[in-house]
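*** Backbone structure tokens ***
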Amino acid sequence: MPLAGGGGSKRAIAMATIAAIPISGCTSSPSIGVLGAYFPDWLFCIVAGVVLTVVIYLVLKRLQADHLLGPAAVVYPTLVTLLALAAWLTLFQH
């Protein structure tokens, strides 16, 4: 049922404005060009987290201190997540 007095057009403009707000977040894609292909930056952060976790694991093994950590199934995935998020916050501040 149309509203009297042109209220429908104001409502349409308001709805279009509300719908456009989330789209404005897509103005710059968080990706990096590598040899012509674009990869999301979180992919590089996950790789960095895994590599840094392996380095920490090897250092702990060399120092024979790996037994001081809790269960490996919990500690190492958590460490990967922590290091990946730290790399993301450090390297990709858009």
Summary: Helices lie at 7-23, 41-62, 72-91. The chain is about 65% helix and 10% strand.
